[in-house]
Amino acid sequence: MSVFPVTEPARALPVRYEGYDVVVAGGGIAGIAAALAASRAGRRVLLLERMYALGGLATLGLVTIYLPLCDGEGHQLCFGLAEELLRLSISKGWERGYPDTWLEGGREHGSQRFEVRYNAQVFAILAEQLLTAEGVTILYGTAVCAALRSGDRLTHLIAENKDGRFAIPVRSAVDATGDADLFRLAGEPTRLYAKGNLPAAWFYETRCGANTLRMVGAADVLSDDASAEVPDAVRGSRISGVDADELSRALISCHAQSLETFLKNGPVSETHSLSSLATIPQLRMTRCICGAYTLDDTEERRRFEDSIGMTGDWRRRGPAYELPLRALHTQGLANAAAAGRIISVTDAMWDITRVIPTCAVTGQAAGLAMALTQDIRALDTAALQQALRGQGVRLHLSEAGL
Question: What is the value of pTM for the model shown?
Fold first, then answer.
């Protein structure tokens, strides 16, 4: 085997998909929210997704639990698209609900937290229909392979799909890849989650007419909820989630354990089916940006003048956080924003901000910010906040009664 690297011959790439104002990389919850927010601000939006359905972990990953929008003490914190997407996910029915009174018009919000388990496939299609109706161009099967920049600006994303390799001009971009791929490819500082990810092998099993989510491995279980489903054990060590060989080995093991767990209830039959298997790795925290500000879990109840929304802590009652715009961008890149689980936070805060409601909050802010500017570092924060309020977002804890 040669020790010398193989050099790919230089080639000119075609430039495609010109004329878009905002390019969103990644079609998970954060990417969906970013694309919707930018499109509703009157911008032409291109959404790139390497899989063939929207929703990311929330659909393809079968992490089908829409966690609370509140602080657990009667105060709703996540508004705007975080609530709209929740309502969309259950608009055709739901699999299991833990309803709170705030979802019912005209009634007070009680102390019980609202969370719901929706149908992954239905939600993915509904999200796709909503985006296309709003004028967003969705490009499936498309992976971002490289990012070209000039000084502090992204100029092109290099993408590849069935049509081959090509360049997409960038005016403004949102990284909603879940792994901070766009920022890393652009040479911006990023970091890995220190502890790594526990493997997970969730699947749906249909048995005697019931469709059950089988949570095998790492799971989002509320620590103060005695009735919460406890996940089955899974064999395997922690993984970074950004190494292809490591990921492949972990997935092969998880697939085997899903099948093993399923077969404990008997063989396949007309009344017993492994009805849905996760089609992407069920990773929670992999890589995030090192942003202009790094948010920590000790900053609960702190007011940020550049807040773009709020979130609670899905694991326990009480904490409430404002989310600063500075956590959504780096110092060195002007025309790109981060959304979802890749925003700049400490390891302790990461487990709080990676979940569906917070991803929707940061996605909406990132998409709207890049619809308003081509230099997020110089963005008029007041203008962004006014636009967010116009899209139904509440920004400060005082607006939530805290």
Answer: 0.94
Provide Rg for the chain, Cα atoms: 21
Is the distance from CB of 257 to CB of 235 less than 8 angstroms? yes
Total residues found in the chain within this entry:
402
Q: Do 340 and 359 contact (CB within 8 A), yes or no?
A: yes
| β-bridge pairing 153-161 and 143-150 | antiparallel
Angle at 288 between CA 285 and CA 294, to 5 degrees: 110
pLDDT digit string (tens) for 145-176? Answer: 999 999 999 999 999 999 999 999 999 999 99
**pLDDT score of 227 more than 50:** no
Asked if residue 304 has pLDDT above 70, the reply is yes
Closest CA relative to residue 337, chosen from 84, 30, 85: 30
104-136: buried (b, 16+ CB within 10 Å) or exposed (e) per residue? eeeeebeeebbbbbbbbebbbbbbbebbeeeeb
178-215 pLDDT, tens digit per residue, is: 999 999 999 999 999 999 988 899 999 999 899 999 99
Report the pLDDT averaged over residues 316-326.
95
Phi and psi at residue 124, to the nearest 5°: -60, -45
Residues 6+ apart with CB under 8 A from 206: 212, 271, 272, 273, 275
